């Protein structure tokens, strides 16, 4: 059968990883602006890479440095977006996933009125996209909540953040109702327990019971997502609102039933945040887990009714790798993945950052998600970080990247042929950017090379890699020609 004729091919970026201009036009500090480049920490030790303390935050607030805080500079998409969008257009993009930085609209999250300069910036970005027939899909929270809400309220641990987020989103819906049809509420919402500060503004050393606080923050985000979904549908007729899950596909390490059970439990907890947003209720197994762990979620009287009445229209997800689980971790060789540590599958190769490469896992993930949710799916992140080399004549010969995508697209198409309703695919990322976990530029994902190193040195010139032309052909043929 192949992909639908209106399949949405494109790429995905995040404001905090590309825009730069961290203190321009009234923007406030976000949690991303205090993320540091840590060259002395192993890139495979993600816990230390994303870890943050109160002292770290205090030091970051006092400095205007961008060398050690790479997300403050990004790749200067803030000023270069016309050039970058033109390059995306030349590749043939139908859609571009991007995020709106909350602190460009409400610098601390509590201003009485939105920052007009921030609204004007995104209005101009969307106008440029529409001028070249690229549809936006906008993430409203992509690891960039106001730092002020983290330091004042401990982020999403405090219920007051719900109303502040809904107000931000409503300002976006009102301003961009003619520009954006597709919206995502929270990026990789399941990640709160993996990096609570990045995802939810929770400062661990100011938190007495971290696990309790993380799941309370989950609940506040679920309620906010439901309210935002309701507001979007009311403000923008015909709009589509999706949830976004990190698909951490996990296999049993062996046929030992205890390994099968360990893998089942891990997958169950991975699905849980999407379950709430799709079905509008907490899964029974998760409620029992809360009971066993002594976790008590404080809810307002109407919360469960709000969740049930305002479920999402489609399910989007990131997929980069798979892992294996065992009842006994001593049976495993551990490796890293997308901000997670787990068992390494001996049948699979890994990237330089330890992430397993599992194209068949993408097909499995699509089949699992569609079978579970019966809603349209969208792959909104998939790709590989690699150490690209720019030649003296400004080329990057990245056959390894072409091979990666070719194998994943083959499996993606087979899942569609099996009956999966897939709306689109956006690669992570179409252009080199600052890595979310390690704050590196040398971990390159793009079809477009950006001349910038880990310390911010370089011309910022953009150069097409070999994969640029290949992806262009894939889009032109709607996936029929992967040669």
TrEMBL record:
Q: What is its EC number?
A: 3.2.1.-
GO molecular function terms noted in the UniProt entry: hydrolase activity, acting on glycosyl bonds
| Alphabetical UniProt keywords | Glycosidase, Hydrolase
Q: Which SUPFAM superfamilies match?
A: (Trans)glycosidases
| One Pfam entry name | Glyco_hydro_1
Task: List the PANTHER family hit by this protein, alphabetically.
Answer: 6-PHOSPHO-BETA-GLUCOSIDASE ASCB-RELATED, GLYCOSYL HYDROLASE
- Sequence similarity: Belongs to the glycosyl hydrolase 1 family.
| Name under which the protein is recorded | Glycoside hydrolase family 1 protein
Origin organism of this chain? Lactiplantibacillus nangangensis
Q: What is the lineage of its organism?
A: Bacteria, Bacillati, Bacillota, Bacilli, Lactobacillales
């Amino acid at each position: 059968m192949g992909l639908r004729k209106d399949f949405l091919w494109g790429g995905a970026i995040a404001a905090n990883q590309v825009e730069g201009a961290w203190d321009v036009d009234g923007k406030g500090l976000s949690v991303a602006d205090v993320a540091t480049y840590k060259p002395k920490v192993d890139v495979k030790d993600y816990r230390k890479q994303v870890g943050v303390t109160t002292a770290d935050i205090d030091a970051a607030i006092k400095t205007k440095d961008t060398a050690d805080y790479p997300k403050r500079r990004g790749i200067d998409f803030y000023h270069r977006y016309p050039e970058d969008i033109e390059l995306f257009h030349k590749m043939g993009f139908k859609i571009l996933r991007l995020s709106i930085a909350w602190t460009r609209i409400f610098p601390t999250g509590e201003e009485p009125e939105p920052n007009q300069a921030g609204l004007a910036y995104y209005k101009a970005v969307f106008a440029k996209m529409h001028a070249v027939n690229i549809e936006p899909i906008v993430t409203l929270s992509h690891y960039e909540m106001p730092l002020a809400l983290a330091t004042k309220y401990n982020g999403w641990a405090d219920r007051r953040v719900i109303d502040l987020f809904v107000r931000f989103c409503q300002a976006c819906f009102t301003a961009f109702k003619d520009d954006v049809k597709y919206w995502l509420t929270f990026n990789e919402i399941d990640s709160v327990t993996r990096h609570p500060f990045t995802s939810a503004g929770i400062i661990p050393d100011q938190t007495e019971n971290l696990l309790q606080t993380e799941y309370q923050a989950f609940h506040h985000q679920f309620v906010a997502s439901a309210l935002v979904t309701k507001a979007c549908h009311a403000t923008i007729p015909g709009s589509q609102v999706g949830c976004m899950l990190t698909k951490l596909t996990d296999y049993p390490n062996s046929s030992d039933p205890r390994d099968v059970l360990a893998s089942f439990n891990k997958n169950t907890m991975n699905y849980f945040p999407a379950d709430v947003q799709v079905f509008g209720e907490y899964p029974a197994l998760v409620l029992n887990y809360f009971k066993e762990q002594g976790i008590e979620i404080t809810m307002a009287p109407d919360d469960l009714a709000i969740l049930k009445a305002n479920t999402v229209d489609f399910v989007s997800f990131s997929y980069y790798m798979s892992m294996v689980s065992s009842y006994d971790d001593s049976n495993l060789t551990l490796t890293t993945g997308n901000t997670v540590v787990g068992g390494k599958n001996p049948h699979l190769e890994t990237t330089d950052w330890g992430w397993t490469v599992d194209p068949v896992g993408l097909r499995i993930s699509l089949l699992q998600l569609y079978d579970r949710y019966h809603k349209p799916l969208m792959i909104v992140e998939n790709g590989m970080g690699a150490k690209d080399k720019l030649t003296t004549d400004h080329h990057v010969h990245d056959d390894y990247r072409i091979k990666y995508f070719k194998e994943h697209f083959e499996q993606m198409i087979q899942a569609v042929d099996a009956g999966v309703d897939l709306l689109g695919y956006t690669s992570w990322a179409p252009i080199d950017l600052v890595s979310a976990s390690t704050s590196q530029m040398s971990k390159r994902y793009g079809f477009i090379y950006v001349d910038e190193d880990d310390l911010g040195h370089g011309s910022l010139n953009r150069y097409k890699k070999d994969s640029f032309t290949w992806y262009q052909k894939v889009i032109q043929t709607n996936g029929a020609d992967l040669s």
